[in-house]
Amino acid sequence: MNQKKPVVFLTRRLPESTETRMRELFDAHLRDHDTPLSHAKLCAAVQSADVLVPTVTDRIDADVIAAAGDQLKLIASFGTGVDHIDLAAAKARGITVTNTPGVLTEDTADVAMALMLAVPRRIAEGNQVARSGEWTGWSPTGMLGHRINGKRLGIIGMGRIGTAVARRARGFGLSIHYHNRKPVHPETEAELEATYWDSLDQMLGRVDIVSVNCPHTPATNHLLTRELLSMMQPSAYLVNTSRGEVIDEAALADLLADRQIAGAGLDVYEDEPRITTALVSLPNVVLLPHIGSATIEGRLEMGDKVIINIQTFWDGHTPRDRVIEAML
Ligand code: 8YV
């Protein structure tokens, strides 16, 4: 057992109770302000830290890993996605990477479901009309959207979040279709009465709503190319709560503008926090600022996971949330 407290460097402000516990347990270096760190400051931080706690807003690339001192042994990320970390470079330097899976599943699925309802039912537009002072009253033909019940949902990536989305969607009368590297357990498939599509393009042409729930990895980068997006029905909607990079965003904006896709609900973007004006100017999209996991409860549980991962590692054990490249 390690007697010395690890030097733990946090790149962002975390919930107060998480920071307090980190101060008690570790030699924690906390930020005064909650702003993303520059690349240069990240490189400086890893020169003396035993443990780095980054978030999705930090690019832990090969240069940052190369700048790390030999004492850096753990990158304990605050979040589930690990596409901001060069896993191969970390592995080559013998640095363990952990994340916080499981605790943001239900929250993210809620936001996916909210977007699935908001876009076809024009909830965001309705909110604007109601506040504008220009609402002239109920009309038989006013603000008509499209029905959710009875439609087909196509989920790309049937992991924890995809499955949680499917469970919610069933309650709204959607039938479940999914594309995944492999079919889910037969019990889960039976529970959800889900149909597995080995071919993504076949599925895309046959569903009414597409929900992107796969992680962003080299294999899923621009998985939804212009060609694949063009296979969606013109009446179909797309929802993304995963990572912007899974979709060719420029192609999506073009297809939405041309009404070759009816609408989209997006929580994530290719170049966050920049959102392309091509998307912002469209009336048939609902845009959120990456709030899929943004609940107080979720953030506290993420903080707990980070602490447990660091303590487990520092005590000489393998943290349960160790990220293995092959899992992605
Ligand atoms: C997190 C996310 O809040 O966990 C993820 O992968 O996308 C977010 O919802 C973020 O990553 C924090 O680092």
Summarize the structure.
By secondary structure, the protein is of the alpha/beta class. It folds into 2 domains: 7-103 and 295-327, NAD(P)-binding Rossmann-like Domain (Rossmann fold, 3-Layer(aba) Sandwich); 105-287, NAD(P)-binding Rossmann-like Domain (Rossmann fold, 3-Layer(aba) Sandwich), CATH 3.40.50. It has helices at residues 16-25, 39-48, 62-67, 87-92, 105-118, 123-132, 160-171, 186-192, 200-204, 226-229, 249-257, 277-280, 296-314; strands at residues 7-10, 27-29, 51-53, 74-76, 96-98, 152-156, 175-179, 195-196, 209-212, 237-240, 263-266, 285-287.
Considering the chains and any ligands shown, give keywords for the structure.
five-stranded parallel sheet, alpha/beta, Rossmann fold, globular, seven-stranded parallel sheet, 328 residues, binds 2-keto-D-gluconic acid, 13% strand
How would you portray this structure in words?
This protein has 328 residues and is α/β, with parallel strands linked by helices. The chain has two domains: 7-103 and 295-327, 3-Layer(aba) Sandwich (Rossmann fold), CATH 3.40.50; 105-287, Rossmann fold (3-Layer(aba) Sandwich). It has helices at residues 16-25, 39-48, 62-67, 87-92, 105-118, 123-132, 160-171, 186-192, 200-204, 226-229, 249-257, 277-280, 296-314; strands at residues 7-10, 27-29, 51-53, 74-76, 96-98, 152-156, 175-179, 195-196, 209-212, 237-240, 263-266, 285-287. The protein has a seven-stranded parallel beta sheet. Strands 2-1-3-4-5 form a five-stranded parallel beta sheet, with helices on both faces. α3 (62-67) links the parallel β3 (51-53) and β4 (74-76). α5 crosses α7. Bound molecules: 2-keto-D-gluconic acid (8YV). Residues 55-56, 78-81, 104, 292-293 line the site of 2-keto-D-gluconic acid.
